[in-house]
Specification:
By secondary structure, the chain is mostly beta strands. The chain contains one helix and nine strands. The chain is elongated.
Length: 141
């Protein structure tokens, strides 16, 4: 048997042995959970200039906890993993987000608080489309 025939046999055997394992692998299931080109107020948003920086933040709220009045200089995508959170604006309007709901805020979103309005702890994940040096939020005075 020549070296070429030997290598061909080894490759064929490897393909035969490995193919069933590949075929039995679990499929990948990709589900788009949320998409929007506007904020909760219907405003379009644009990404900040500068060196792009994506950030992922996990925020845990104890029952009854509220984050103080603030704004955001960059667009963000929020996702409620657990519980219920209510965004309340200075004008008295509010919007409640429950488990598995998502939302987008941006620089035009008025100053607001974010508070746990449910009866247990809450967890929110936030992705900021930021730029180096720009803070995730600014506390409103």
């Amino acid at each position: 048997m020549s070296m070429r025939q030997f290598l061909a046999s080894v490759i064929a055997l490897a393909i035969f042995v490995l193919t069933p394992n590949i075929a039995m692998a679990e499929p990948v299931n990709v589900t788009e959970m949320f998409t929007s080109s506007t904020t909760i107020d219907g405003d379009a948003f644009k990404y900040p200039s500068g060196k792009a920086e994506m950030r992922l933040v996990r925020v845990a709220f104890e029952e009854g906890a509220t984050f103080p009045m603030h704004t955001h200089a960059t667009p963000l995508l929020g996702y409620i993993e657990k519980g219920q959170l209510t965004l309340a604006k200075k004008d008295g309007s509010s919007e409640t987000f429950k488990q598995d709901e998502s939302f987008i805020l941006g620089p035009k979103t008025p100053a607001h608080t974010m508070g746990n309005s449910g009866d247990s702890d809450a967890i929110m994940w936030v992705t900021f489309a930021a730029a180096k040096g720009i803070p995730n939020l600014d506390l409103a005075s």
